[in-house]
Write the structure tokens for this entry.
Amino acid sequence: MIIDSHVHLFYENSDSRSWFIASASTAIASMNKASGLKGNAEELYDQLAPELFDKTGDKLVAAMDSSGIDRAILLPIDVRLLTDEPAAFDPDFPSIEQKNRTYVEAMKRHKGRLFTLCGVDPRRKGAADLFRKGVQEWGMLGLKLHPTAGYYPHDPACYPMYEAAREMSVPVIIHSGSEPAPLRSMYSQPKYIDAVAADFPEVTFVIAHCGHGWYKEAVDLASMKPNLSCDFSGWQVEYLNNPDYFFEALRFALDFLGPWRVMFGTDGPAYTFFMNNRDWIEAIRNHASPSGITFSKEEIEIFLGGAAMRLYGWD
Ligand SMILES: [Zn+2]
């Protein structure tokens, strides 16, 4: 069983154009790092958007079929309090509740393949109510927070969300790691999740992306708090830049946390432009590490699916 524990749906107005454009310029800088040439981010975005956009999850499920992914966990992103002005005041612009509904529709449409968490900025009025409704009435599996919109995970505004997660016995996934403008990376350092994990020992918190460049900090914190897990979604670029950077980080996480708290993810659809999911899974299964870092077959199988199965109570 292969489970993509971290994937998104992007579509017209799902997120702000400014963030999409900034993400495109980050991608250009990465692709052009040898030449240092600046490309046109707007042009790249306009060219890729039709391929990227997938409101129903149909493209995602087709991509899962062709890469052997059985189930995927959708994570709605809410960074609009930071990014949307003035679009947020446009009555035609979908509300965060509508966005979450769109994710639920995709889950219903692809029953048994797609599952979704609730994504809402805790500073919004009624955030905890939306989260409760999402889980209790719509069948969402947990909460996704994206603190890069301008709040720390230990901000008092977040606490009613964690109370709700505890009451409903569902996990909370917290973005961790650097992000393109206009998002603020400083809020997403793993250390800010530590106090929250201490205050809610019954809630499982997943440090998304294992903190990317802060992976040692993420693993170090998780080694002290058994209610912290991590996912290695969105590590395709690190792998492509230097395979052993990824293998070392994964080995480090597995050595300290064991396989059951370390999950695979794609962070699609954006990362599929760098590497398709079939190749990403193959790279992990084959783990051709230049310096000879190894993984057992069992570790890889738990990483690819078993750990997420257990987190969501499917095993
Ligand atoms: Zn993501």
Summary: The mean pLDDT is 94.
